[in-house]
Amino acid sequence: MLQAVKNQLKITLKTIKYGLMREMLNKTSFIMNIVFMILNNASFIIQWIVIYTLKEDVGGYTFNQVLLLWAIAASTYGFSHFIFKKSYYLSDIITNGKLDSFLVQPKNVLISVITTDVEVSALGDILYGYIVLVLSGLTITKFLLFTLFSITGAIIITDIAVLLGSLSFWFGKSDMIADTGSSLMTNFATYPDGIFKGISRILLLTIIPVGLTSYFPVWIMTKFDISLTFIIIVVTFLLTSFTFFVFYRGLRRYSSSNLMISKI
pLDDT digit string (tens) for 206-257? Predict the structure, then answer.
């Protein structure tokens, strides 16, 4: 079991490495994609600077907490889209019968599919997240927690993308549903949860797990809570297990298109 996990990890890291090497063939494009993504993200902080010149807090968040919120949202998005890029195209892969070549390989099908390509601009999101973390006041504890929650958050939003994409096994093309779900996760993650009230707030802390990816991590980094940290880790594990279950259950219904494309 452990050997199988180790082998799969090696294969995944090599796939990501080769994907990155392909993108780096054009160094100018590679660097510009990263730089412009950092600049694009930075432009949104300006609006918060203006808002906080007028108010002391927004939704119970100080300016430093909003910086943390943007940092964790960007880094989470970056890790997910860089490592698991294809999870956001899963519906298309399923409906167009592009799983064929993955099914004949001695590797985990789901992991192989979603890590088969990388999104270079997402590196800009990751770097931006850590830059903003430094601006918000860096400590070793905050750095370690930030990295942990960036990884758990990336896994969670990837799980959501895979779950919604996997609906295509049962209902045909579900790319619009998957795109909407991913957009909701990303958009709400950059706003303080205190501005949401009633049902919308409950949804963001439960069904739409933005609380697990952004709000709870900011609370923990502001005032450490070991029990809340444990909850995030456990829920991440359970959600990922459920995601694998749903995908492989749906895979039984998969219809080949006889489209064979070699994957290295």
Answer: 778 888 999 999 999 988 889 999 999 999 999 999 999 999 999 888 766 5
The pair of structure tokens assigned to 160 is 């959501």
pLDDT tens digits, one per residue of 79-138: 999 999 999 999 888 888 888 878 877 678 899 899 888 888 999 999 999 999 998 888
Q: Tell me the domain boundaries of the chain.
A: 2-251
Residues 6+ apart with CB under 8 A from 30: 23, 24, 120
pTM of the model: 0.89
- What residues pair up with 58 in beta bridges, in sequence order? 61
Q: Decide if 248 contacts 110 (C-beta within 8 A).
A: yes
Q: Spell out the alpha helix ranges (H) of the chain.
A: 2-23, 27-54, 63-83, 90-95, 100-103, 109-114, 121-135, 140-165, 168-171, 175-188, 198-205, 210, 216-222, 226-251
Residue type, 77: Y
Mean pLDDT for the chain overall? 85
In the block, tokens 């907490």 appear at 65
CA atoms of 125 and 86, how far apart (whole Å): 17
Distance CA 262, CA 12 (A): 16
Q: Which residue has the tokens 């994907």?
A: 19
